[in-house]
Amino acid sequence: MSEAHYNHRFIEHKWQQNWRERKLYRVDNQSSKPGYYVLDMFPYPSGAGLHVGHPLGYIASDIVSRYKRQNGFNVLHPMGYDAFGLPAEQYAIQTGKHPAETTAENIARYRSQLDRIGFSFDWSREVRTCEPDYYKWTQWIFKQLFNHWYNIKSNRAEHIDNLVAIFENEGNINVAHAGGEVDDFIAEEWLHYNKRQKEDILQHYRLAFIHETTVNWCEELGTVLANEEVKDGLSERGGYPVIKKPMTQWFLRITAYAQRLLDGLDAIDWSDSIKEIQRNWIGRSEGATVNFPIHNDTAGRSLEIFTTRPDTIFGATFMVIAPEHEWTADLIHADQADEASAYVEWAKNRSERERMSEVKNVTGAFTGSYCTHPFTGKQVPIYVADYVLGGYGTGAIMAVPAHDSRDHSFAKKFNLDIIQVIENDEADVQEASFDAKTGKCINSDFLNGLDVTIAIKEAIAFIDDKKLGKAQVNFKLRDAGFGRQRYWGEPIPVIFDDDNIPSLLGDNDLPLTLPTVDSYKPTGSGASPLAAIDDWVNTPQGRRETDTMPGWAGSSWYFLRYMDPNNDQIIASNDAIKYWGQVDFYVGGAEHATGHLLYSRFWTKFLSDINVLPFDEPFKKLVNQGMIQGIVESIYLRKEKIDGKSHFVSSGLVDNPADFTQIPVHVDFVTDYKKTDTPSFLNIDGIRQFKEWRPEYSDAVFECSNGKVIDGIFEADGDAIEPICYTKSEIGKMSKRWFNVVNPDDICEEYGADTLRLYEMFLGPLEDAKPWNISGIDGVYRFLKKTWKLFVDKEGNYIPNANPADKKSLKTLHATIKKVSEDVQRISLNTCVSTFMIAVNEFTDQKCQNKEILDQFLIVLSPFAPHIAEELWEMGGREESIALATWPSFDEKHLVEDSKNYPISINGKTRTNIELSLSLSKDEIEAAVLQDAEVQKWLDGKQPKKVIVVPGRIVNLVV
RNA sequence: GCGGGUGUGGUGAAAUUGGUAGACACGCUAGACUUAGGAUCUAGUGCUUAACCGCGUGAAGGUUCGAGUCCUUUCACCCGCACCA
Known about the structure:
Layout: H1 8-22, E1 35-40, H2 55-70, E2 74-76, H3 86-95, H4 99-115, H5 132-146, E3 148-151, E4 156-159, H6 160-170, H7 187-192, H8 195-202, E5 208-218, E6 223-225, E7 230-231, E8 234-235, E9 243-252, H9 258-264, H10 272-282, E10 285-293, E11 302-307, E12 318-321, H11 328-331, H12 337-349, H13 352-357, E13 365-372, E14 379-384, E15 396-399, H14 405-414, H15 452-465, E16 469-474, E17 480-481, E18 494-496, E19 502-504, H16 534-537, E20 538-539, E21 542-544, H17 552-555, H18 558-561, H19 574-580, E22 585-588, H20 596-609, E23 622-624, E24 628-638, E25 647-649, E26 660-664, E27 681-682, H21 684-693, E28 701-704, E29 707-710, E30 713-716, E31 725-726, E32 728-732, H22 744-750, H23 753-762, E33 770-771, H24 777-791, H25 807-825, H26 829-846, H27 851-861, H28 866-875, E34 899-906, E35 909-917, H29 922-931, H30 933-939, E36 946-950, E37 954-958
Parallel strand pairs: 1-2, 1-22, 12-14, 22-23, 24-33, 25-28, 34-37
Antiparallel strand pairs: 3-4, 5-6, 5-9, 7-8, 9-17, 10-11, 10-16, 12-15, 13-14, 18-19, 18-21, 20-21, 24-25, 24-26, 24-32, 27-31, 28-29, 29-30, 34-35, 36-37
Helix pairs in contact: 1-28, 3-4, 22-23, 23-24, 23-26, 24-26, 25-26, 25-27, 27-28
This protein binds one RNA strand of 85 nucleotides through helix 10, strand 11, strand 15, helix 14 and strand 33.
C-alpha cells in the first residue's frame, strides 16, 4: 500500500536521499563499457543563487546522460564551480569578508538548489577552480606555456630548451617562430649575450610572455580588462569608462594557434553561429604586403602596407598611415606640421568610445610626404587618419578609393583622385565605390582583362618576383592578456630577480597559494593587493609576480580535471584521459563564444602538442541553450513632483513617456504577473508593499486607471472597489537588478523537480530564448498525475499485472520508444515530452494494465522525470534503480499497419479520406479512389487529367 | 555596414526526406460530478460562415500534381562583430 495520490514532495525527497546514500551516480574510470562524457559549463557561484534559467542546460544534459547510461555507456557527468572571480572580490572590498568564505557559502547554496532538481552528477568529482589542489595544475600549465615556443616549421609547440640549443649552434637565422620580430643573430652572438639580453630575446618566443602594450585600463575597477570585457568603451561590469594605458603585462600567444583554431572548427559539431563568431574573431585574411618607397627619405625607407586586394594596386591614389604608426612623426613634413601633428595629437587623445561612436565621420590630415608607386612610379601622397588601425596589418594601407568604401569617403572629403580599375557597368565609382570581388581589371597595365581572382594571384606573383613584398596572411586575433591586478585569482608562479628577469617556481613549490591580505582594495597604482604584502612579495630569489590569472584560466582546462580530480601527480592520469577522451556532449551558453570556448580550444591544442593529451579539440559536440528571460515589471513615475509629492501613473494613462521615469517593481507585488493575455497591475496591497519596499516613495500618489490612491486610501472614480494601477511589462533578463528572479526551489516545492524538468524541456527547442512563463506548468503537472494513475488506483493499490498485452498498447509503447530515442539523440527534448503525454493519454484510453509495457514506458520516461519513474518502478517490485535499467529496444513489427487512411486531395486540396489496404498496387489504389462516391462528386463526371499515387502516403487528383 | 538566426492560432509550440498545417499543452467556451476546488471528467476551439464553400505558416513572386519546407525578391525582430584594408 502506498500513497493514493501523486506526492512529489515525499517521492523526490525519498529518492534524492536514496541516490545519495547508494552513491548511485558514482562512475569509475575503468569499465568494459564505452565511456561517454557529458558536460555542462560549470557555473560561477554568485550570491544571487540559481534562477530557473540556469538549470535549463543542466536538465538537458542530465537527460542525455541518463539516456546514455541506460544505453550501455559508462557516463561521466560531473559538476563543479568556476570559483575565482570579481564579484566575490568586490564583496570582499565592501565587507572585508574573505572571498573564499563568500564563495564557499555561495557554493553551498548552489549545491542545495542543484540537489533538489535530481541531477545524476557524480559529486565525488567536483572541482573548484579556487582550491589550491586544483589551481596547482592551472599554474603548472602556465609553466609549460612559459617553457614552450611555437615552431612554425613543425607547426607545434616545442620546448624552449630545444630553441636555446639551436641558438647556441646556429643562431636564429633558420628559426621560424610565431611571435614578435627578432633581429637575426648567429650562434657566436647568442653566446656573448648576457642573461638579460637572452631573456629579452626568449620573451619573443615563449607562449607565455611579458610585453608592454596599451591595455584597457578601468580606473574605477582599478584593473585591466580583456577586450571582451569592454563594450562600447565601457566596462561590461559596472559600465565604467575604459581608457588605453601602457602597461607591462603577461600574455599568452594564442595567435600562434590562429590557423589551427580556424581549421579545427571544421571537425567539430558546434552550431554554425558559434563557429562563425569564432571565425570572425580569428579574422583570417589572405593578401600581400607591398613596400612603397618613401620619396626623398633620407633613411631610404619604404612604407610597408598590407592589402587583400593587390589586384587593385593600379587604383591606389594615396596612402594612409595610422596615427600611432612608428614613422608618423618622421613623415610629417615641416610645412604640414601644424595641421598633421595637431591631428595626431587629437586622435591619440580620443577615447575608444568617441572613436567608435563617430565611425562615419571621416577624419585625417596630409603629412606632406609622398611614396613612389612601385608599379606606376607615380608620386602618391601619404595621409594620416585614424580609420587605419595601428594594431592591424602593418598600420598602413594603400588607398583604392574606387573599390573601397572607406577610402572612397576619405578621397571625397580630401578631394583625392579616384581611378577605376575593376569593371562595373552599374554604377559610377566617382559617386560610390565598388567593393565586390568580382569583375575584370581595367586601367591596370599587365592585369587588364584578368578576372579579379586571377589578377590577385598575378599581382602577388609580380610583387614576389620583383621583391616588392610578399604574400601574407593576417589575423585579427590578438594575443590574450593574462594578468589581472586583482586578489581573487590564481597567483602566477613567477619570481623576478634583481635584473627583473622572470623565472618559474619549481614544480615542488606548487601550488603557490594566495596569502591572506588586510585589504582587498586595488592599490590604485595598478598593482594588485598582493603587492602590499612585503613578506610575501620579497623572497630570497627575488620579487614575486603580484598579478593573478584571469577568470578564464581555470575554466580553460577544467573538463580534464573531472576525469581524475584527486590526482596529485599530474593534471589527470594518462589512463583516465585515454579512456574518457574528448567531451562528447557539451552544453552551455553562447555568450562564451570568443572567451572560454576559444581559450579551451587553445589550451587543448597546446596540451596536445606537449603530449599531455591525445586529442586537440576539447568539445566534440556543443549545444547552446537559449536564455530564459524574465518579465521586467515597472511603473511610471512623473519626473516632476506635484505639490512636493511623487506621482505614479497607471501605464494606460501615460501619454508622453518622456515625462516619466520607469521604476522597476518587485514582481511579487504585481497581480496577474506572467500572464501574457491579461495586463498586470498593482492593487491596493501591491501599492502598500511597494511603498514599504521603497520608503522614499512612502508619500507617493498613485494615479490608477479607476481612481487615485493617496496615503494608502483609495479615492475611486465612480463605483470602483479596488484600485488598478497597470504596470509596464517587458521581456528582459532574469536578474537581481530587475527583481524578477524565479528560484527553482519554489517550483520544486510547489510542483516538484520532475515537473520543473519536464516543463523546462516542454517550453520549446533547447536553443531558443524564451520568457519564463508559469502558465502551462499545470499541464505538465497534470500529466504526471495521470501517469501516476496508470499505476496506482484510488486506494493506493498497484495496478499493473501480467495480463496479456494489448496490440494497441504495444503500438503506443513502441511508437514512444522510437520517437523518444530519435528525439533525445537529436536533442529535440520538447517533442519527447509531447510524446510522453500522447502515450499516457493512449494508455489511459486503452485501460492498459500490462506491467511489461508500463515498466518499459517508465524507463523511457525516467531520464526526464527520474523521481516518479523510480518510485513507480520500485512499487512494481524492482530493487535495482531504474537509472541502471536497460533502455527498451524498439520493434518495428508493432508499428506495422495493414491499411492506411489515405488523404485524397484534388488539385492539391484534401477533400476526403479513404481507408485502403497497404498491399494494394498503385493501379488498384487509383481504381479504388476513382470509384469512391465523394471523389466522384468532386470529379463531377469528368475524367481526372492526372492521378498521382504515393503508396502509403497520399493520392492527388488533377482535374 | 557585415555575419548568424527567427517569423506558423488568443499563448508556448509541432510538422525529421516536399505529401492531411496547427500534434501536444496553456487559455477559452459549454456541460457532468461534487467533499464547492487553482480538483477530476466529457465535448468544442485557426479565421470566416447558419452550413457548404472560401481563406490561412511575415509580404510578393516562382518551381511542382502537391510548398511552412525548395528558389528569387522583400519586410520585421533577435544575437554577434563593427573602420580588420
